[in-house]
Design goal:
Immunoglobulin-like; 4-stranded antiparallel beta sheet; elongated; disordered N terminus; mainly beta; 31 strands
Length: 416
């Protein structure tokens, strides 16, 4: 026996040398089947798996070789991290004699931990998609063949399956679609929802969560709105819709530098604009369109700030002269209205000498929060309604209404 094996190996080696061919991973034995393809004579193990050994001839040239393998386990396309996913499901019609047919979908495969299901119910479906395991109450606003697709996945593993249903005219239900107009400027009431009914019978009536009975909503704030449509047969369809708005309002902070003295022309105003929706557009009363203007003389300067949605702020600033005699008039820039009797009120020294004075307080967004006439050092950091203003810096304008029409502006901080 050993002698025969040796002879076979020598013959195979000699054939390889003569023909220039190779035998790869060959395991030869004297037991089993024989096959001859010139210039080879090869035997392989009895009981070897079908197709595990393939002997290739010399056509095309340099292709002759023996590939011998071993029986491998059946691979179903799923690794241990990719379990078997079975996207099978049933469709059950729920028939209403008046309001059409609704369809319940039921997943009949095996549920796997962390499995995600994605349904698509085809054209004209309400709803169009779902991630519920067993969605119910699906109906169609148009007849015809509808392709219902279920995709199940976990990680990178995905399987899908589709089924077709034929929706007839008498199975069509009542539905509605919505076109939403979002609020462009935060806190405005410029939103709207236009409703288009689909299917159903006869004229439709509408009932909104706001109490409105119109088909469409206009001039409403951001928020969630629900409408229920009813057709002539009393069939209903409800739709939840959300109107959005920008996350912040357009606002600004300003750095103001007064003119040193008359004719110095060294005053300036620098704005930092934020909020709303970029980009911004800035237009000054001087005609400049930059966020900062320089070389200013004392006086009033107005500005309009707009974002890309045309949300705007209109405000004005006063440039003073710093060389004015301040020994007779002084504005304190901090108050601490905490009720301890110390610095609770905003003090403007010598304000009583100007009985016709006017005082205006603005927040950082340019909104007027407090104003008064004949001020007597009694402001304690409240708004016009007497409610406490939050800790922050505020911008003030003081008109003395004296013969020189003196106007002061600056900032005062509330610390609590």
């Amino acid at each position: 026996m050993k002698k025969l094996i040796t002879i076979l190996i020598i013959l195979a080696f000699t054939a390889s040398m003569v023909s220039g061919q190779q035998i790869k991973r060959s395991t030869l034995t004297s037991v089993g089947k024989l096959k001859t393809i010139e210039p080879f004579r090869v035997s392989w193990t009895a009981g070897s798996c079908p197709g595990c050994n393939v002997l290739h001839p010399l056509n095309p040239p340099n292709s002759g070789y023996l590939r011998q393998g071993f029986q491998q386990p059946t691979f179903n396309g799923n690794s241990p991290d990719c379990p078997s996913l079975t996207p099978s499901f049933t469709i059950t019609p729920i028939v209403s004699p008046v309001c059409g047919t609704k369809f319940d979908m039921e997943y009949t495969g095996i549920s796997v931990l962390n499995m995600v299901v994605e349904w698509n119910f085809g054209d004209g479906a309400f709803p169009q998609t779902s991630n519920e395991l067993n969605p119910s109450g699906v109906f169609y606003s148009t007849p015809g063949l509808k392709i219902v697709t279920l995709k199940v996945s976990r990680g990178l593993c995905t399987e899908s399956r589709a089924r077709t249903i034929n929706v007839t005219n008498n199975q069509i239900g009542l539905a509605a679609t919505a076109i939403v107009t979002d609020v462009k400027c935060r806190n405005d009431k410029t939103g709207g929802i236009n409703i288009t009914p689909v299917g159903g019978v006869g004229a439709k009536t509408y009932r909104w969560s706001t109490g409105a009975t119109s088909q469409n909503l206009t001039n409403v704030a951001a928020g969630r709105y629900k409408v229920t449509a009813t057709d002539a047969n009393g069939c209903t369809f409800s739709l939840d819709t959300v109107i959005t708005q920008p996350s912040t309002v357009v606002s600004f902070t300003a750095e103001i530098i007064a003119e040193t003295c008359k004719d110095y022309e060294d005053g300036s105003i620098q704005l930092a604009v934020n909020g709303g929706t970029k980009p911004y557009n800035v237009l000054w009363s001087t005609g400049e369109t930059t966020t900062g203007i320089l070389s200013l003389v004392a006086g009033k300067y107005s500005v309009t700030i707009k974002d890309t949605n045309n949300c705007r702020i209109d405000t004005a600033f006063l440039i003073n002269r710093r060389c004015r005699d301040t020994s007779k008039f002084q504005v304190y820039d901090v108050i601490t209205p905490n009720g301890d009797g110390k610095n609770d009120k905003w003090v403007i020294a010598n304000i009583e000498k100007y009985p016709n004075n006017e005082v205006f307080i603005y927040n950082r967004w340019g909104q007027l929060v407090y104003q008064t006439t004949k001020y007597r050092n009694d402001w304690e950091g409240t708004n016009q309604d007497g409610k406490e203003l939050p800790t922050a810096a505020y911008y003030y304008i003081i008109r003395l209404n004296d013969p020189d029409n003196t106007v002061w502006n600056g900032s005062v901080s509330i610390l609590r």
